[in-house]
Design goal:
Elements lengths: L1 E8 L5 H8 L2 E2 L8 H6 L6 E13 L5 E13 L7 H7 L5 E7 L6 H13 L5 E6 L9 H16 L8 E5 L17 H11 L12 E10 L3 E10 L1 E3 L3 E4 L4 E10 L2 E3 L1 E3 L3 E6 L10 E4 L5 E9 L1 E2 L12 E6 L2 E13 L9 E5 L4 H6 E15 L4 E5 L12 E11 L4 H4 L5 E15 L4 E5 L15 E4 L4 E8 L4 E6 L5 H6 L8 H6 L7 E9 L7 E2 L1
Parallel strand pairs: 1-4, 1-5, 5-6, 6-7, 21-25
Antiparallel strand pairs: 2-3, 3-4, 8-9, 8-16, 9-15, 10-14, 11-12, 12-13, 12-15, 17-22, 17-24, 18-24, 19-20, 19-23, 20-21, 20-22, 23-24, 25-26, 25-30, 26-29, 27-28, 27-30, 28-29, 30-31
């Protein structure tokens, strides 16, 4: 069994050093091998390494415990710098469990908070381990009290999250370099391994689905072929199987597979592996997805049930744009919010009301959905997890940039989705047009102005219902003249109050209507629904 553990934390909290202290096997992309990482002294991309744990008490989904003699742990070392959050989010789909690394001296920092939010999204039902790193920087005399103090602060923070009863804090030192240049020996690493043995949960590893593989590194070996390293997200694949590589629009046969340098015949969901295929230019596939032929599609738009991140303090409004991470792609998307009954499931045949801006009051009484329209198509599988962020917020700001998340409920792979899909979405706005009664023409008819302009097509207004401020109900019979006036029929005639206001048979001029006090006039209201994506642009009552 292989378990993928994401190692997250603020920049320079010691994540990579902790991975080194735990690991026995390194992949081709680990421990900051990127030359830029080495020159800048920070992690710039996902790194992978592994080690074996014996006697793991793995908790299964039903709550039963099974003991495995040997479990492979793959550590996914995520960059901590604020500008690299999209890399972290991109790797979130392959993570089974989280180790959050916190600098014991500095405590919770800006990216620590964002990592906690990501952990809540990626592993909502799993325990979280906090590696309280760099405890060697406390003196021996003050170490115990200092650890207790920072642990108390950490628990106060975690109690505000969904991990309040599922957090374990392990004080460690990964052997980080000090300011004087000395490297301390690792401390309590075995304690961390023991905690992992007890807290690992067996993830769903069913392999009945089609093969889907997330590639995070690609390179070629002369005489062998091109190697794609990554994680199997769904299904299984074996040597000699055909797989599709959408980035190069080709299908390739698998020549060989290795799992941390050991040849294997087959891999399945959750396995970390290197797949060798016949030669192609590795620069064409820096990162992405490969799959069973025909599985992956280009997504142009989608609908999701929106869950807002409570720490995001900026508006989430219709017609605004967000950075959306879907699979390994980050694309800009325009958002349209709409709402249904609380607890309802999305059904394209139902009506939904347009929502201008998300609010906690609305979300307490309604289910909020979002239509995302991508600026460029994203290559995804059928049920893609989605995370929306505002990555253009100043990286030096302490503000949370992760805005919302959700699961795709309706996908459009049609480039002409605006013509073929959107008209099917019955998202409406409540609209109100108002005018004033100009004069009473007969016992049950009157003339009003102000609802339409003279150039408006009257046909779509005929027979629509109206109401008067004096309580009467009626309908629009048609236009009156050519200046934008309407003739109304009042079903049960006019009230005494209305008759009193218009007891003179003389019509009120436009100027008189404008100068009159509103209390002296009878207001006509036309309420209707307007479907946002209806090509007919008609009105519904």
């Amino acid at each position: 069994m292989n378990i993928n553990i994401g190692v997250l934390g603020h920049v320079d909290s010691g994540k990579t050093s902790l991975c080194k202290a735990l690991s026995t096997t390194a992949s081709t992309a680990c421990f900051d091998k990127n030359p830029q990482s080495q020159s800048r002294g920070i992690t710039l991309d996902l790194g992978f390494s592994s080690f074996l744990l014996d006697r793991v008490e793995a908790i299964q989904n039903e709550g039963d415990t099974t003991i495995t003699n040997e479990t492979q742990i793959t550590l996914v070392d995520c960059p901590g710098h604020a500008s690299l959050i999209r890399t972290i989010i991109g790797g979130a789909s392959i993570i089974d469990m989280i180790i959050l690394v916190v600098d014991a001296v500095k405590g919770v920092q800006t990216q620590t908070a964002e990592c906690i939010i990501l952990a809540e999204i990626v592993c909502p039902d799993r325990p979280i381990i906090i590696a309280l790193n760099k405890i060697d920087q406390f003196t021996l005399e003050s170490r115990t009290k200092s650890i207790e103090k920072v642990t108390k602060k950490l628990m106060a923070t975690m109690n505000k999250t969904t991990f309040s009863d599922r957090v374990t804090i392990v004080p460690v030192s990964a052997g980080c370099s000090s300011e004087s240049g000395e490297v301390s020996q690792p401390l309590n690493i075995d304690n961390l391994r023991d905690v992992l043995r007890k807290l690992i949960t067996v993830p769903d590893r069913s392999s009945n689905a089609s093969f889907l593989f997330s590639v995070d590194h690609c390179f070629s070996i002369r005489g062998k072929g091109t190697i794609m390293t990554g994680t199997c997200l769904e299904g299984s694949a074996a040597v000699n199987d055909k797989i599709e590589i959408p980035a190069i629009s080709q299908e390739k046969k698998i020549k060989s597979i290795q799992v941390f340098k050991k040849p294997v015949e087959r891999i399945s969901k959750g396995d970390r592996a290197g797949i060798c295929v016949t030669q192609f230019d590795p620069h064409l596939l820096e990162r992405g997805l490969v799959s069973t032929p025909g599985l992956l599609k280009h997504l142009y738009a989608c609908v999701l049930k929106l869950t807002k991140v409570p720490y995001f303090k900026h508006p989430i409004a219709s017609k605004s744009k967000f950075h959306v991470v879907i699979g390994h792609e980050t694309v800009m998307a325009r958002i349209t919010l709409f709402m249904g009954e609380l607890g309802s499931i999305f059904d394209i045949s139902r009506e939904y009301e347009y929502l201008q801006e998300y609010s906690e009051d609305v979300s307490a009484s309604k289910t909020i959905f979002a239509l995302l329209e991508f600026e460029r198509p994203a290559l995804v599988s059928t049920k893609a997890a989605i995370i929306g962020s505002k990555l253009d917020i100043d990286v030096n700001s302490s503000s949370c940039r992760i805005a919302f998340h959700g699961q795709s409920l309706l996908n459009s792979t049609d480039p002409k989705y605006t013509e073929n899909l959107l008209p099917s979405l019955r998202i409406f706005k409540h609209k109100t047009k108002t005018g004033v009664v100009e004069r009473i023409a007969s016992e049950d008819t009157c003339v009003c102005r102000g609802i339409i302009k003279k150039e408006t097509n009257i046909d779509k207004f005929v027979d629509l219902k109206v109401s008067l401020s004096t309580g009467e109900k009626g309908r629009i019979l048609g236009s009156f003249g050519s200046s934008g006036k309407l003739k109304l029929q009042i079903a049960d005639g006019f009230s005494d109050e209305c008759k009193e206001k218009y007891k003179s048979s003389k019509k009120l001029s436009k100027r008189a209507l404008e100068e009159a006090d509103e209390s002296d006039l009878v207001i006509v209201s036309l309420n209707f629904k307007k479907y946002m994506f209806s090509p007919s642009k008609g009105f519904i009552q």
